[in-house]
Amino acid sequence: MSASGTISFVCVLLLLGSVSAQALAAGDGGISLGLAAKYPGDHGLEADPAVLSFSAYEDESWRVGWDCSDWGSYRLTDDPRVVFSGTHSLVKTGRAGSEGATLSLDLAQPTDVLYHRVYARFSEGAVNTRVMGISGVGAGLPQWKALGSAGIRPTELPYFCATLVTEDEHPRKPMWYPYHIDQKGPWGDNWPIDVEFPADRWFCLEMMVKLNAPDKADGELHLWVDGKPVYAKTDLRWRTDPSVRIGRAFDMVYRSKPFPHTSTYWVDNRVIATEYIGPMVANDQKQTAPRAARSETMPSGIRFFVDPQRRSKTDREQHMQYGLSIRSPWDGGGDVFINFPEHLEYNTQGLSILRHWDDWENGRVPWIITPDGRRASYEVESPYEKGVIVQASARLATADELPPGTSGVHFSMRIANGSQHPLPDIRPLLCAQYRGLTGFPAWSANFDHSFILVKGKPTALADLPTADPNATFKGCVVQGCPQRDTRAERQGGLIEQDMDAAVSAVESLDGRRKLVVWWTPGKSMISNANIPCIHADPYFGTLEPGDSASAEGLLLFADSDLGPLMSSLKARDRTSFAK
Asked: Residues 353, 423: contact at Cβ < 8 Å?
């Protein structure tokens, strides 16, 4: 453990040999598709004639054309846990003691109708904030005047402003704060919206303003959340002066009084257009983002998806809350299912941090999957230990992370103990189920095809002795690990010889393809002769209050020989136990 109380781990889960985004089907539940439906993944959307501005937040070029009252409140991040699409997203930070900032874009040409779409993410503990908006001014006024005229009626100054904010008492419940001709007082009105933004997941947020004819009350204000209309008002008087036009779109992380504590929000894939934009679609099936259903027409290659068949609403033992399915890159090769975790517990009594049956009756999916199916992440608070936060992510691994001749996925997990007591002897159980892989063992003879690294050599579990020679449930501990609880010792299945590293493998029945799991620092492994799953679990040790522990990983596919491959993983292993 470092002086800061942070432990760093690396985990690699490999499928050796040579995964679909989640989304609602178009039209389900009243979802409205728009311009984005013509451009899967938003690719090419920026070139559509109706699009005035597109910000993917992939590099600092996004700043061009935008102005900000405090650039320190906006920055890019490449943390895969909070990236919706691509490799980066934009972080909005309301710093404790500050009122925040406004980010604004002045249109090259004014218009009478404007749509403003963004993907947004709110953390559970964030306070209320102003979110985004559209404004305009009359002839001779600078665009900033619309935001700088609080307390002045639009009947006294030719301007309007429509701002989406969240309520003080309900920081994820939005309402409108509009300045318009018929407002009740000098300050903008407060119009409630009957919806609540989700916490800790990406959602699509789109607003629209249409100006009225100067002599009529036919102006409009609309809001869509994840493509569903949640607010519509069509009798507004935004103006009486015909020179008032829409001239600005803006984003805010701002409060009229200072932020009581630092609050963070994220946005991605912002579009400003003169036509309805709608949610991003994942592929040519016209599916909506960010969650996509499994699609048999997904392009070949590794993809992530959540399989609804693994999420029972009637039997908690068949509900895998943190399960993630991974499409293998082999043609017709099938899928791997990862319980990430199956169980996460602490101390010798096995007290709970996470369990696979968590929230099984409500059915909320924790995983956030990008439309291309190449990134997945979640962040949850333990239902059992208040203040204990678990973060997990999966993404396609980069070339420098992969052993030669493999392809795969990078995993990470982080546990932060924000509780008031220690979490001794954390025991993760991360299960890789391979029954969905074509040509791999299923319900028998698994020990003949499963291997661990012992004395520098891959050794079949069938050849490793245990106290009970007929044990069907075997486990092994990494050399030097102070935690020697594998669960297998209770059934006489503890392997007598410690393993070199937390690296496990299973091969296909013909021996050509392999699945390998590796964690560092590693704790132990388990395997069942009659259940098609393997484990190699990490060592988290004990976390005192305020401590955190991180783990990184890979999921790889290849057909190389196990000996050199497992040895290469051992060579890069960073397991070290305190003496």
From this structure: yes
Each residue of 348-371: pLDDT tens digit? 889 999 999 998 777 678 888 877
Compute the CA torsion angle 284, 307, 411, 484 (nearest 10 deg). -170
Structure tokens at 486: 């594998």
Residue listed under structure tokens 């949610």: 279
Three-class SS of residue 147? coil
Dihedrals phi, psi of 311, to nearest 5 degrees: -125, 80
As a whole number of Å, the CA-based R_g of the chain is 27
**Residue 519 pLDDT grade (very low, low, confident, very high; cuts 50, 70, 90):** confident
Round to whole Å and give the CA distance between 396 and 75.
24
**Residue 397 token pair:** 């691994």
Distance CA 205, CA 233 (A): 17
Angle at 126 between CA 194 and CA 261, to 5 degrees: 140
How many helices (DSSP H) and strands (DSSP E) are in the chain? 1, 35
Q: Is residue 364 within 8 Å of residue 389, measured between CB atoms?
A: no
Return the DSSP state at 573: -
pLDDT tens-digit series, residues 70-95: 888 999 998 888 899 889 999 999 88
Cβ neighbours of 556 (radius 10 Å): 29
161 neighbors 137 (Cβ within 8 angstroms): no
User: For 423-462, what is each residue's pLDDT tens digit?
Assistant: 999 999 999 999 899 899 988 789 999 999 999 999 999 9
Which CA distances in Å does 434 have to 174, 249, 538?
Answer: 44, 49, 20
Of 276, 79, 243, 91, nearest in space to 160 by CA:
243
Please state, in angstroms and rounded to a whole number, the distance separating the CA atoms of residues 328 and 508.
14
b (16+ CB within 10 A) / e for 27-45? eeeebbbbbbbebbbbeeb
**What is residue 29's three-state secondary structure?**
helix
Sorted by where each starts, the structural domains of the chain and their CATH numbers stand as 9-20+291-571 (no CATH), 41-273 (2.60.120.200)
- Evaluate if pTM is beyond 0.70: no
Angle at 462 between CA 460 and CA 466, to 5 degrees: 115
The number of residues making up the chain comes to: 579
Q: Mind listing the pLDDT tens digit for each residue in 392-408?
A: 988 888 887 888 888 88
Distance CA 479, CA 498 (A): 5
Query: Which parts of 9-99 are beta strand (E)?
Result: 10-16, 51-55, 66-68, 74-77, 89-94
Find out whether 252 and 174 touch, Cβ atoms under 8 Å.
no
Sequential DSSP letters for 335-370:
EEEEEEEEEEEETTTTEEEEETTTTTTT-----EE-
State both tokens at 474.
């075997």
Give the Cα separation of 346 and 367 in Å (integer). Answer: 23
